[in-house]
Design brief:
Layout lengths: L1 H11 L5 H11 L1 H10 L5 H8 L3 H29 L1 H18 L6 H29 L4 H7 L1 H21 L4 H9 L4 H11 L6 H6 L3 H12 L18 H10 L1 H25 L2 H7 L5 H56 L4 H16 L3 H8 L5 H30 L1 H21 L23
Helix pairs in contact: 2-7, 3-7, 3-9, 5-6, 5-7, 5-20, 6-7, 6-11, 7-8, 7-19, 7-20, 8-17, 8-19, 9-17, 15-17, 15-18, 15-19, 15-20, 15-21, 16-17, 17-18, 17-21, 19-20, 20-21
């Protein structure tokens, strides 16, 4: 165990390599597929409502079912990835992505859609948990945080692609039911298949292999990825007992920096999930129902907003080394809070509909900052033995918040109106800001160091 801990510390302080950067990009690019599978339906809800006339609860259930599946998948997938390795999980999830995304093109009623999207959530959540662990183990400190924070940029790019595809098909005159059932949702299988084929050449991470006692393979992978043969490890494998989830929580709670950072990450994931699932996800519906734009114009407006989000999603990670995780979270949640209040005022007090897209654009800018580092902190701060478990556990808060909000927000704005419902959502963003200001310690550059007896102090870059 002492030798494995020494090897883990060596791996976690390695300098970056081209292979590690490529692996990081391949893991974070999964978000493109997730964005399509999660949010393409938001641009198709108008067609669902027109064809099946579901009640508000059913609309929310169809939209949120994938998050319920992801909630379970993130916890199970992280646990499995820590025990069976990263490679088995990230290949298995891509296979399920391809099959289940394609199957969406053949559903014929709302309940079939709900069930299929629930099942689709399992590989989605599992892959996020595994992917974040892989990024934290394949890239050097500082660089791995920037890569992890890029997940919102990938989300925005995926959403732009989804908007563009839906808009092109709509303007081409494809019938709405075909646009929804057979093409709009099933197209997610194509990038999933491409990513599966590219990932076939990726190995497991050296750290995951070390923690499972597979020293011979770990030495080969470390040499390939870092040019380091890890000479302290023997040339034979040894069985290593895997810790339990209870051990993970006990370890997190024992260190004050880990504890506060993890609590913030859970709050942040929940807050950003709720703010986007409410206003961001239903933005196309809101724009149409309030008469701001028509269907075709709505897609162009939302496309422009998400192009702004793409820029925000890359700017945020780039400036994180200068303003830190606390800075990016405070600016992000603060901007989202003010933007949501402005959107509510434009609806409620002024009836200046032209301000709604402006408020939505500034909301997305703030959101793609505040949502950038919750998962990064969760995975980065965790002990090496629990990185995938920690990432999966942290993602639960994001998916739970999205699932609940996607179901309740349509009911809420039907009961109290869109303006007041937007004010309620703004309070969630305010909570995220306060958590960043008063709970989160600055952890940029954090590297855990542990031996068989204790956890050592964090080291700042």
């Amino acid at each position: 165990m002492a030798l494995s801990d020494l090897a883990v510390r060596r791996v976690m302080n390695q300098r970056g390599t081209k292979i590690g950067r490529r692996a990081g990009w391949l893991m974070i690019s999964t978000i493109l597929i997730e964005a399509w599978d999660l949010w393409a339906i938001s641009f198709l809800l108008i067609f669902i409502k027109a064809e099946f006339h579901p009640n508000p609860f059913m609309v929310g259930l169809a939209a949120g079912a994938v998050n319920a599946g992801a909630l379970l998948g993130s916890l199970c997938g992280g646990w499995v990835a820590d025990r069976l390795g990263r490679r088995r999980v990230f290949l298995g999830t891509m296979v399920l992505f391809v099959v289940l995304a394609l199957a969406q093109g053949f559903v014929t009623n709302m309940w079939d859609l709900v069930l299929l999207r629930f099942l689709l959530g399992f590989p989605l959540g599992s892959d996020i948990a595994c992917g974040y662990a892989y990024i934290m183990e394949a890239m050097p400190r500082g660089k791995r945080e920037v890569m992890g924070n890029r997940w919102q940029a990938m989300f925005a790019i995926g959403e732009v692609f989804a908007i563009a595809a839906v808009t092109v098909m709509f303007l081409a005159g494809i019938q709405p039911h075909l646009l929804l059932w057979r093409l709009g949702l099933a197209l997610g299988s194509i990038p999933a298949l491409a990513l599966l084929l590219v990932r076939l050449k990726l190995p497991d991470t050296a750290m995951s292999l070390i923690q499972r006692g597979r020293f011979r393979e770990a030495k080969r992978v470390s040499m390939r990825m870092f040019g380091d043969p890890l000479e302290m490890l023997p040339n034979q494998d040894f069985p290593i007992n895997r810790p339990s989830t209870r051990d993970f929580l006990r370890n997190i709670w024992a260190d004050p920096v880990r504890k506060r950072a993890t609590i913030f990450a859970w709050i942040s994931n929940g807050a950003q999930g709720a703010e986007f699932a409410a206003f961001g996800f239903y933005l196309p519906v809101i724009l149409v129902l309030t008469g701001v734009t028509g269907i075709a114009a709505t897609n162009f407006v939302t496309g422009a907003i998400y192009l702004i989000a793409v820029v925000s999603g890359f700017v945020g990670p780039a400036i994180t080394p200068w303003i830190g995780h606390r800075g990016i979270a405070q600016w992000g949640f603060g901007t989202a809070f003010v933007s949501l209040l402005a959107a509510a005022a434009a609806f409620l007090a002024l009836d200046w509909k032209i301000l709604v897209p402006v408020a939505a654009a500034t909301l997305m800018w703030g959101h793609y900052w505040d949502a950038s580092n919750g998962m990064t902190i969760t995975a980065m701060i965790a002990p090496s033995r629990y990185k995938a478990t920690a990432a999966g556990f942290g993602y639960i808060f994001c998916k739970l918040a999205q699932f609940v909000t996607l179901i309740l927000f349509p009911v809420m704005f039907a009961a109290i109106g869109i303006p007041l419902a937007t004010v309620v959502v703004s309070l969630i963003s305010l909570g995220g800001f306060l958590a960043a200001r008063y709970i989160l310690p600055e952890v940029y550059g954090y590297v855990e160091q542990e031996d068989t007896h204790r956890t050592l102090a964090a080291v700042r870059a």
